[in-house]
Amino acid sequence: MTGGPHRRWSVEENLILEALVDGNTEKILGKRAELARMIYERLNECAPNDNSRTVEKVRYKMDHYIYKLKRGRRTSRAEPTSPGLVGKQLRLRDNTHVDSVTTRPSSRRRQVPKVVMSLRSSSAPRRKLELPHPPTPPAPVKQHPGPKLSIREIQGPRQERTQQVNGQTLPSASLNSEPRGTTTTASGIKLSARSMMEVEPWERKHIEILRSLMAQGSYSAPPRHSHVRTALGNITLQIEHSIECYRQAHPCSYLDLATASDDARNLSQVSFTASTPSTVVDMMETASSHPAIWLDDILQLFISNAVFTWAFNGFKEDPQIQMPSAVQRTFNRLAQYDPEAVRRLNIATKLDLLDATVRPRLPVYAEEFQIRLFNIFKSMRVAPPETDPTCEVACGSPEYSQAKHREFKKITRTVFLDTLSLRADLARCDRKYFAQFFKQGEPFDEESMEPHRQDLENALRDSTVYICLRPAILSFPRESDSEAPSPSQGVVVVKAKVVVTRSSQA
Asked: Which residues does the annotated region (Disordered) include (predicted)?
């Protein structure tokens, strides 16, 4: 095995490995390499700075665990439990099982061991004498309490706490001498506060609801990086297809910001990461005249920024719903005693509202984003002159243009809806995701970027970013409070797609 120095696997890492192996038993026979890659990616997401972990080490550990699993042993020290098992079973040497909880001591068969004594004589041969062992005294019988006692609290004029048991008032000194949470009855039997508590039916129903919320309402494990890359790859292909349909429905020579709307200027300023409107115009003209950038690249730049700025980064994971004041006061009071319970309830409430209120409105948001993007292109588009022969070839008949326009609207709506659906799925994970656009002039980084065209690979060493056609998707821990954390703290899930140029020409 190759990699860094040897390090023992933690209990959490063993549990992750066991969970993935137990959940993918069909891959144990013929797809162990794929299963090892899945486990390696999950461990890398949980501990991205652990450089000693390699796929070969994970494969060796996985095979070792599968071998132990066949022999009935596990890697982690956590004992598997079964919901139908009442008591812990003890395996004896004669392969008999004894239930230590349900079996009564008096009903157990007593095995009387034998004491072997050896008697010797000078004339007689050696023989053995077996004597029975003295019988074991019987187990003590459990004393059951007497009839049910009526216990209630009494407060005197000076607010002195006393207790009355079956009409007999106990002094405060006896209460203070008892352990906390216990009560002494008239017969001297101590009862715990839990045994005296009576739960009403409506209280039991609310307890079951709270238990289900805190047990199920938690973040899920993050998806595999390959799943996110596949989804983003399909979205990129749909964006390129929508650009082709738009140019066939609306022929365009170039984009001009002189007649652009305010929404178009804002999107241009985000796309070119410029600080002033005049700088945006200069960058737009420079990009349009660059030999390595075509008009389709400019259109893809605007669509990609619109999709990942509005739908991906602009997605609100916390639905803005105001709780009633009485419920908020209850949560605040409960947080003083058990903050963890309030945190779990908040997560369960957020995930429930995400499915109940946000997901049904995703098609509405996608339609609004599609109309907004088309109006931006409409305000910036400069049509070619009618005498241009390419215009007749691109336009075709009016019916053809209308069909391509409807196809463009349908594809663009699908792009926004797929992005919103992916972002809603990521909102249920225990990690946060953010789309990072790289600015013009930043050095090319092979770990987080990939070139737009393969013919530019010979210039990647001394190259800088010119435009970013697709952002990099970064993953961050859920504990970080900021909406846009530092890129140095994130794990690259999807590489950015950039157009690069040499530094001397930038």
From this structure: 93-187
